[in-house]
Structure formats: C-alpha cells, structure tokens
Amino acid sequence: MSYPFPEILESAFVDGTRVKQYEYELRFSLLEMGKIKIPSGYVIACDPIVMYGRDEFTQKFPIGQFPVQLSIVKINNANERVAYSRIKFSDNDVVRWEFALCPGQDALPINGGKSYCFSVDAGLAVFIDKEAKDVFNKKEHSEWEKVFIDKRLDNQQLYREYYMHEFDGFNMAAFETGVGDGCYSTYIGYDAQGLPCRLLADFAFVNWLEEK
C-alpha cells in the first residue's frame, strides 16, 4: 500500500515495517492503548508538567471515543521505544499531513525547514481533551503526583511506558516520548474529504525530511 509523504507516519503503525536509519535498523510494530474520550473536539498534546497552561490545538476533531495507538520501534533488534503516538479518528486513508497548530501559529509546510513542536522535560507526554484537562487541573497537586509519578513507577516497561488514566468520566493517554526529553512535532492527517482522521506525535526516530 502507498502512503502520502512522509510515508513513515502511516507505515510505522504496520507490524514489521523496517527502516534503515544511518547505522541502525529500525523495526516497527503497533500497540493499542485503548480509547480516549474526546467530548469537546479540542485536543491537547504536551508534557504533563506544563498541562495546566497548555493551549488546545485550533483544529476541531471528531467527538466521541477513539483508539490511541503507539508505534513501537525496536532498534537493531534490541531496545524498544515509543516512536510515534496517534489518535485514530477514522479508518479513512490519509491524503495529506499538516502541522497541528496552537493559537497564534500560522500554517507551515511540513518539509519547509521550519516547524512547530512541544517541549518535553519529563520523558512523558499526554493526549487529553480540553474539557478533561480543565477538570483535571482543578484537582489537588497530590492527584498529579499520583498519576504522573506513582502510576508511572508502577508501569515501567523497558522504555515502553504507557497508560490510560480514567477520572470523573474523562480520561487521558500518557506515554513515553522516544528517547526522552526533546521538542516533538505533532501532525494532523486529513482524508480525501478534508476531515481530520489522525492526530500524531513524532518522536524523531526517522529523519524523513531526507526523503525530499
């Protein structure tokens, strides 16, 4: 099957996909996390440390419950990491990718040399709906520690840490960010009708800009 540029943003979620990156062989597989609840249609992707003040993306997404999927990369048949995370809003094919934009950001070509990204200092990121974030932000700080420190320690899986956290009728998806800290871009995949069918965070394992 053919995918739009950059192909890896879709093929990395197909079991057995292999990529040669410099001296490394990368092998990808799909991991299903569960379904995230999107009641408002507005989504945040960020390091949980800054979730309190993080803006949602300006694009409105479908409302409902949707699969959160991780692309797990095995490096030289050894270490495993989270290479990409995504919310899959539909099974429709992606025909183009664009940057997911926050308020005040202008559209940029994804291969134009400039980019937008969210900073990670905790080696962890989340997808969360705006309404869910507003509810979680009202909780005591001890709840934050319970979710992002205590629960994290209980779920360590050799750099493949991930979990869904349920609260007050809402939830969020938390997952490791590749090799840890960095600044990671988030993309929206659009279908042939111009509707968003993917929201994807790229943890920079494949330098796909070299394809162009």
Any overview of this molecule?
With 212 residues, this protein is mainly beta. It has one domain (8-211). Helix content is 12%, strand content 41%. The chain is built from 3 helices and 12 strands; from the N terminus they run αββββββββααββββ. It has helices at 8-11, 130-137, 141-154, and strands at 18-21, 24-38, 43-46, 64-75, 80-88, 96-99, 118-120, 124-129, 162-167, 170-176, 182-190, 196-202. The strands form 2 sheets. Strands 1, 2, 4, 5, 6, 7, 11 and 12 form an 8-stranded antiparallel beta sheet that branches. Strand 9 (162-167) and strand 10 (170-176) form a beta hairpin. The protein is globular, with a radius of gyration of 16 Å. The model has no long low-confidence stretch (mean pLDDT 91).
